[in-house]
Amino acid sequence: MKFVHCADLHLDTAFSGLGDGKRAALRQAELRRTFLSVIELAKEADVLLIAGDLFDQDTVEAETVHTLCRGFASLGEIPVLIAAGNHDPLFEQSYYKLMELPPNVHVFGTEPECISVKDCDVYGISFGRSVQTEPLLTNFSATPGRPSVLLMHGDLGGSDYNPIDRVMVSQSGLSYLALGHIHSYGETKLGSTLCVYPGCPEGRGFDELGLKGVVCGEVTNEGVTKTFVPVCQRQYREIPVDISGLLTHDEVIRAVKTVVDRLEDLYKIVLTGETDFVPDTDVLSEAFSDCFFIKFYDTTKKPLEIEALMKETGIRGLFAQKLSQGLSGDETGRYARALEYGLSALAGEKVKIR
Questions:
Q1: DSSP label at residue 143
Q2: Same domain, 205 and 162
Q3: How far apart are the first and last CA of the chain?
């Protein structure tokens, strides 16, 4: 059985962190386009497996419903199997029940079910509510002698969102555990079962960095083969830039331009190092106005020459002497920041609070 395994699309995410409605609307449209990219991949497979959190919130746009139904229908007789997650649980008023889904789509219920696809058994179970502190499955085993897949949203790490019993999985006889809930790619082998999180197909914040995609693979009597396939429209990227010794905005801008190589991506630029210069992040952002999204965080420190400061007469020297006693103890970082902030204030400079 050839499969495409995806999860955590979170369609109609608000994207409130982008700061304006225009960029948020563009990202919402891109999520829908990413879904259609997954549909195109599924046209070469025997089944599309969706492991929950297809939707992100209670309010789903009519355009999203239309896109989903048209996309699923375009697969013809290729089945779409869905296990609802904590953001899109299956209950009487869920969109899975309100939408008129094409006949090739099956949403698993809140009790385990099994559907045969080609020569493989596909089991599945859905969340019935948004918080699932108890395991959805406590005693599960696949039919012996057949390739088998379990589709489920949950946490192998044991959180309050369907904590999965790793011993149960290792003894289940499953070929493949198709998971959702964790937004980064991950895989582990428990017994003979390959357990895979494809991650989210499209990053939605700076806690979801880098390439995002889906898993394409095949389950046979001999085992499982699979590959990660990137499908994201844009990447979230967090990049430190050392600006030690730089003293002008132009110098900082040139340093940042060496790492901002894809203007369509979303950047969190963390300025690091030691410098007497206090960059204005608004000035830096304006220099990258052609980038889809960029935000600067200044974590630089002022270079401190403690010995020289302590020899000064006047309030700067007295202040350095007073705080120097804490620079070698357990709270070195706190004392160093206090010294930095105090000296900046005494000089009438802008104090950078980190």
A1: P
A2: yes
A3: 53
Low-confidence residues of the chain, pLDDT below 70?
305, 347, 349-354
User: What does the alpha-carbon distance between residue 235 and residue 34 come to, in Å, rounded to a whole number?
Assistant: 13
Distance, in Å, from the CA atom of 341 to the CA atom of 268, rounded to the nearest integer, reads 25
Q: Residue 314 has what pLDDT?
A: 79
The tens digit of pLDDT for each residue in 277-290 reads: 989 999 999 999 99
CATH code of residue 205 = 3.60.21.10
Q: Do 122 and 245 fall into the same domain?
A: no
Q: Output the pLDDT for position 174.
A: 97
* Residue span of the structural domain in which 325 resides: 303-354
Measured CA angle at 11 (ends 88, 297), to 5 deg = 115
Estimate to the nearest angstrom the gap between the alpha carbon of 140 and the chain centroid. Answer: 30
One domain for residues 287 and 186: no
> Which has the closest alpha carbon to 270: 283, 289, 252?
252
pLDDT of residue 67: 97
What domain count does the chain have? Answer: 3
What is d(CA 178, CA 38) in angstroms, rounded to the nearest whole number? Answer: 16
What is the sign of the dihedral through the CA atoms of 244, 248, 253 and 255?
negative
Count of other CB atoms within 10 angstroms of residue 124: 25
Close Cβ partners of 182 (under 8 Å, ≥ 6 residues apart): 155, 197, 199
Strand partners, 65: none
* pTM for this prediction: 0.87
Same domain? 217 vs 261: no
The pLDDT score that the predictor gives to residue 68 is 97
